[in-house]
Automatic annotation (TrEMBL), chain B:
<comment type="similarity">
    <text>Belongs to the binding-protein-dependent transport system permease family.</text>
</comment>
<feature type="transmembrane region" description="Helical">
    <location>
        <begin position="106"/>
        <end position="127"/>
    </location>
</feature>
<feature type="transmembrane region" description="Helical">
    <location>
        <begin position="156"/>
        <end position="184"/>
    </location>
</feature>
<feature type="domain" description="ABC transmembrane type-1">
    <location>
        <begin position="69"/>
        <end position="283"/>
    </location>
</feature>
<keyword id="KW-0813">Transport</keyword>
<keyword id="KW-0812">Transmembrane</keyword>
<protein>
    <submittedName>
        <fullName>Sugar ABC transporter permease</fullName>
    </submittedName>
</protein>
<keyword id="KW-1003">Cell membrane</keyword>
<feature type="transmembrane region" description="Helical">
    <location>
        <begin position="73"/>
        <end position="94"/>
    </location>
</feature>
<feature type="transmembrane region" description="Helical">
    <location>
        <begin position="205"/>
        <end position="224"/>
    </location>
</feature>
<feature type="transmembrane region" description="Helical">
    <location>
        <begin position="267"/>
        <end position="284"/>
    </location>
</feature>
<dbReference type="Pfam" id="PF00528">
    <property type="entry name" value="BPD_transp_1"/>
</dbReference>
<dbReference type="InterPro" id="IPR035906">
    <property type="entry name" value="MetI-like_sf"/>
</dbReference>
<keyword id="KW-1133">Transmembrane helix</keyword>
<dbReference type="InterPro" id="IPR000515">
    <property type="entry name" value="MetI-like"/>
</dbReference>
<keyword id="KW-0472">Membrane</keyword>
<feature type="transmembrane region" description="Helical">
    <location>
        <begin position="12"/>
        <end position="33"/>
    </location>
</feature>
Amino acid sequence: MAPVTLRKLVKRYGALEVVHGIDLEVKDREFIALVGPSGCGKSTTLRMIAGLEEVSGGAIEIGGRKVNDLPPRARNISMVFQSYALYPHMTVAENMGFSLKIAGRSADEIKTRVDEAAAILDLGHLLERRPSQLSGGQRQRVAMGRAIVRQPDVFLFDEPLSNLDAKLRTQVRTEIKKLHARMQATMIYVTHDQVEAMTLSDRIVIMRDGHIEQVGTPEDVFRRPATKFVAGFIGSPPMNMEEAVLTDGKLAFTTGASLPVPPRFRSSLREGQKVTFGLRPDDIYPSGHGLHAGDADAVHELELPVTITEPLGNETLVFTQFNGRDWVSRMLNPRPLRSGEKMRMSLDLSRAHIFDGETGKALAG
Amino acid sequence: MKLSKLSAPTLLLLPAFIVLAVFIVLPLMFSLYSSFTPFRLTKPDTLWVFIGFRNYVNVLTNAEFWVAFGRTVLLLTIALNAEMLLGLGLALLVNKATRGQRILRTAMMFPMMFSPVLVGFQFKFLFNDNIGFVNNALQSLGLTDRAIPWLIDGNLALFSIIVAEVWSSTAVFAILILAGLLAMPKDPVEAAHVDGCTPWQTFRYVTWPYLMPFAFIAMTIRSLDVARAYDIVKIMTDGGPAKRTELLWTLVGRTAYGDARMGLANAMAYVAILLSIVFTVYFFRKLAAARQQIGAEW
């Protein structure tokens, strides 16, 4: 049993504070992703959990035991690095069995466990090779094998797919997901790629500038982003967002265009309030080509010109001009469109998001 | 034969061949030839007397030669190992320094900037039994009350020479190993920490295999250096006392210029060069193996 708890965790480099007292409870056997842009402190946090960075303040507990001052070897963790970090002078089998050898296990046991891990990751035929003789994807699988063999309480992944090409990335991603189902261990996964975070994890932690913006299931962070930042970070293509002021009971945009206030926000907004209005590409679509009919009352229709289209086969991303900028919409069952063509667009306002203009926090509807 | 009849490649290569022939191949052939003669500097005519392998037979059956040979190998073994250990320690320490690493690196190389002859003089003074710093220090600290005959006792003299050698050249190891440390990727070391290694195990199983090629490069360079050791010994003991610190090249030098027996000295030199070649080949093999081990791409 190994839940991981961060309490008021702080990291400072000299006078520069990069992680500002974050709190997080990772449940036993949970797959949690730390996601955020470069420099948000996610890797630093992971490295503190691993024991590779000193903790400047607060506490880290693994399995209820405070580990702040324990060296990495006493934490019973495994880590998969972005650069694979394999031992170049050892064969694949030696790489995978190294932690057991250090722990003084018998040669028989090492072989059994290496063979098991190799079978899981389909590495059996590569055991006698050296890392330099392997492809990137194979190296990353060996790195995962090395982590598995150790049977740790907690797996830590530091952007493990970043060095792989797109196709391999999807493939190894699936393997990591299978691995979690099989190992039933706590896994903490750092990535800057929201798709990885969404597809893999039970819960996602979105970080920004050393703070946690939101913790929630993929569904939560997508459907109910807590802040404007989360709304913009999660989802591809990103949410359409526009500054607005509540004027005469309408959302008035800076250029003069306006939209009715979405029904669920009608009671909570006050006149003159500055907000950011957000609508996902799924919730704005050429009429008749939407993902869902939505609440008929809340669908607002507009005639908008198409600027460009990005056909993806089963759907087309349509960029339409509204309020002086391109709004992305998702067109299902697409038909060919011409640039400049006027389209009747449906805006499903029941799914709109409104954020406070000052704090960027989501307003409750 | 007209020059223009030669093909362009031959013509272009000719200067290099001529220079090499005049300055290297011919002297080498001449010295090789003279090793088959009883050539003495004092009797030029002897250069034309061919005596076959007699010089070589003399050398190989000469106890004095073999003692010098053995002593050179001994010096090489002790000095290289000591330099390697000290250099490694020094490199690891400097690598840990978070501030002033450049200054430390420069300071570390100071001993290499002095001429070996001067190093010899300096250590000759340090180890002088009457006025030397070493005895003075030992006596002042109350560690001994007699004057230790550093350069007069045979074993101590060799020890003193080794100390001078090690002092002047440990930096070669330190610099090369430090280069290795600086070039080494950090991730495998971190992976080892996570895999459960103690700092010693991390060094033993991850860092050291990575540094080995660098250590072998230093070994190769220094084995050639020490195998031709001459200057420091010449100054400090001149092979004495009673030839107890005679090395291969001091013996060759003495035979050639002291006894003027150039033919015999050349024969000795050729045998000595074999020693250097053997060491170089040995360390190069080790280097190649170590490089392959870490999958080095250089």
